[in-house]
């Protein structure tokens, strides 16, 4: 609707009001917020550690969201951010660059508010995730290499007159890090009746960097003693970029652990809120993920294994220092998405990965209190 004077004959004020557009946006926001209101908070599981250690390990199970992953929170925040900013309107095509789970969740919310959704996605993305994107009405546009995703998503958004969600830029600002039921606030509310309600560490991976930014900022805002550790898989730019302080660090190589690790330092990654970063071998991530399933029956993806490996390292440090306490990490998504890959011995072997020595190290640690992982090449 073209701008019009606010009063007849008055050209000093311009009224940009569009009642029909505002009405559509109001309804879209209501639907997105109602989805959150229908969903109970995610579970906080206790991982079995030897009781004599005096240490508790908690797993916040983000796989129980309606779209099955931690990215459900991000997609909800990105949609609300885009709607509140007036970037998403009736008829807008939503475009994203995603390695999988964010696209699944954004396709869900696009369908919820009646918009078309297209994601630019690497060809190697798991077929299970592709099927989920399409189940929610999304379309997949494939590229051969992850670095090509960004420019192609921008091109598609311009071509369709759509909105590029750009999770890698907006993840750290779309979520209210001070509270409003973000993941950090939820963790501390759920821990309030535990014997160690203020954990020594929270351990997360970084895909966009949004989760670590939210948790790290919340810890400082609430003046909590908990420290934030970020784990990073092979080929990712986050760990070397954090160590060197190079904001433009790039490896140009894809991560084999879907959902975390990036070939470049992303705009949403906030190094200054992180207390510790730990590189994790891909084979260790797979060993930890499979150990979780064998011990607890919980089925999770490779990024959860990365988280667990980091948590066990920190628990080993606490034991050496003679300290009790608690550690919290995340179940990022469910293992049903990775039956063809991380749970498939042939697939793992084809990629030159050998989880067996790492699995043996975990078993020994939990049985004998000896942390002696294999040396990485």
UniProtKB/TrEMBL annotation:
EC numbers for this chain: 4.4.1.1
GO biological process: L-cysteine catabolic process to pyruvate
Cellular component aspect of the GO annotation: cytoplasm
Residue ranges annotated for the Tryptophan synthase beta chain-like PALP domain, each copy included: 48-333
Sorted UniProt keywords: Cytoplasm, Lyase, Pyridoxal phosphate, Transferase
Catalytic activity from the UniProt record: L-cysteine + H2O = hydrogen sulfide + pyruvate + NH4(+) + H(+)
Cofactor: pyridoxal 5'-phosphate
Subcellular location: Cytoplasm
Predominant localisation class: cytoplasm
Single GO molecular function: pyridoxal phosphate binding
Modified residues (N6-(pyridoxal phosphate)lysine): 71
Family membership noted in the UniProt record: Belongs to the cysteine synthase/cystathionine beta-synthase family. Cds1 subfamily.
Record HAMAP family: Cds1 (MF_00868)
Biological function: A cysteine desulfhydrase that generates hydrogen sulfide, H(2)S. The H(2)S produced by this enzyme modulates the balance between respiration and glycolysis, and contributes to redox homeostasis. Probably eliminates toxic levels of Cys (which can induce oxidative stress).
Name of the protein: L-cysteine desulfhydrase Cds1
The organism of origin for this protein: Nocardiopsis sinuspersici
């Amino acid at each position: 609707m073209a701008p019009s004077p606010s009063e007849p004959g008055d050209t000093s004020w311009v009224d940009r009001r569009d009642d029909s557009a505002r009405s559509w946006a109001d309804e879209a926001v209501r639907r997105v917020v109602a989805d959150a209101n229908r969903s109970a908070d995610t579970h906080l599981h206790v991982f079995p550690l030897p009781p004599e250690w005096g240490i508790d390990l908690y797993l916040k199970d983000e796989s129980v969201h309606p779209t099955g992953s931690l990215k459900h929170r991000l997609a909800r925040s990105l949609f609300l951010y885009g709607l509140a900013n007036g970037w998403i309107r009736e008829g807008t095509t939503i475009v994203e660059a995603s390695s999988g789970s964010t696209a699944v969740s954004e396709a869900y919310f696009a369908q919820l508010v009646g918009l078309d959704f297209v994601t630019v996605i690497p060809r190697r993305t798991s077929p299970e995730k592709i099927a989920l994107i399409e189940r929610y009405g999304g379309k997949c546009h494939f590229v051969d290499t992850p670095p090509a995703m960004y420019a192609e998503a921008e091109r598609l958004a311009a071509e369709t007159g759509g909105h590029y969600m750009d999770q890698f830029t907006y993840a750290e600002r779309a979520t209210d890090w001070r509270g409003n039921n973000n993941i950090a606030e939820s963790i501390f509310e759920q821990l309030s009746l535990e014997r160690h309600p203020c954990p020594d560490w929270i351990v997360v991976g970084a895909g966009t960097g949004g989760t670590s930014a939210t948790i790290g900022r919340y810890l400082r805002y609430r003046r909590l003693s908990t420290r934030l550790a970020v784990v990073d898989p092979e080929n990712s730019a986050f760990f070397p970029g954090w160590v060197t302080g190079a904001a433009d660090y790039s490896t140009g190589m894809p991560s084999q652990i879907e959902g975390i690790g990036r070939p470049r330092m992303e705009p949403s990654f906030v190094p200054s809120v992180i207390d510790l970063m730990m590189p994790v071998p891909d084979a260790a991530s797979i060993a930890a993920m499979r150990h979780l399933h064998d011990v607890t029956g919980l089925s999770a993806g490779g990024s959860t294994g990365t988280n667990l490996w980091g948590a066990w390292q920190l628990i080993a440090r606490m034991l050496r220092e003679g300290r009790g306490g608690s550690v919290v990490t995340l179940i990022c998504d469910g293992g049903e998405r990775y039956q063809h890959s991380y749970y498939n011995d042939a697939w793992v072997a084809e990629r030159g990965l050998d989880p067996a020595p790492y699995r043996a190290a975990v078993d020994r640690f939990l049985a004998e209190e000896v942390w002696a992982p294999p040396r990485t090449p």
